[in-house]
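From: lab user (bench 3)
To: helpdesk
Subject: output format question, protein + zinc ion

Hello, I'm new to running complex predictions and I'm not sure whether the block I got back is the full result or only part of it. Here's what I submitted:
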Amino acid sequence: MKCRKCSQKAVINMRQHKLALCTEHFPEWIVEQTQRFIQKYRMFTHQERVLVAVSGGKDSLSLWDILWQLGYNADGVYIALGIDGGFGYSRKSQVLCKEFATQRGLKLIVVDAPKDIGLTIPELAAITQRGKDKPCAVCGLVKRHILDRVAKEGQYDVLATGHNLDDEAAVLFGNTLSWNIGYLHRQSPVLAARHAGLVRKVKPLCRFYEREMAAYALVRGIEYIYEECPHAEGSTTIYYKTLLNQLETDRPGAKLSFYLAFLQAKEKGLFAHTEEEGFGAGGETLYTCPSCGGPTTVEGLCAYCRMVEKVK
Ligand code: AMP
Ligand code: FES
Ligand code: ZN
Ligand code: ZN
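Helpdesk reply: Thanks, we reran it on our side. This is the complete output you should expect:
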């Protein structure tokens, strides 16, 4: 297979785009496309300060690399969660994020969640039982809270995450199976800040397949953690991803069109989200947590502060 642009040997063939590209033109294409998505969805401008949430994985580090190449003013934030899994998952991820930032002279903020809370994520899950045997729900709550807080405190304009198309399609699949209206309202490449304790949230990689991001990281020589979080095994999201991959094998482009058709339906008003200050994406009232100043859908402490209270 030859590169469409220069007829050198292609490193990737993207069947859904009927496009094969070489080691030189593929990363170029990814960077150009990202810039196109940033503008199309009005994510942020070169004048704004971006905070990239990096996990040490291929997606978020590639995102940071792309924004750096595009000349955006983007710092990174890594949350140490204290997850070991027998191979030092959190420790390893942190080292990779640090090395990435140092190599490029970028600023990385590191937040030590166990130090903040007094417990590691698995310990926290065991105590609060929110996540039953899996700590993922508690972990998600902690990550969201810390990312919102760091973005707000650092006066960033926008928080960017590395969610790719496979992530978004799997979430969408789950949300449609249960017709979860609230989540369908909220799922979007860009979510406006609807509360004083929040900043805008964006997902610039939401239209790239996971395999495209893996290829990008490889071609760019980005060192990232290959292992998934040890607690992700057997998760519903992974199950949905497997199902969607089967569909994709038979019908190339199925994942992309599933997600894009949803975004188009949203533009026409289906599950459109409100951008009104003080209201959630689905129009629900947002109160202010008296402890952390963050948003909450019920009056009183937010879910994070309630959990921390309980631990104390
Ligand atoms: P995940 O929920 O693990 O698929 O991660 C989705 C996105 O959340 C990643 O692409 C990152 O942008 C962000 N993220 C996940 N884990 C962390 C972490 N430990 N610190 C900072 N950001 C993270
Ligand atoms: Fe949080 Fe796996 S990353 S439980
Ligand atoms: Zn080429
Ligand atoms: Zn709170």
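A quick orientation on your result: Residues 32 and 124 are 42 Å apart (CA to CA). Let us know if anything else is unclear.
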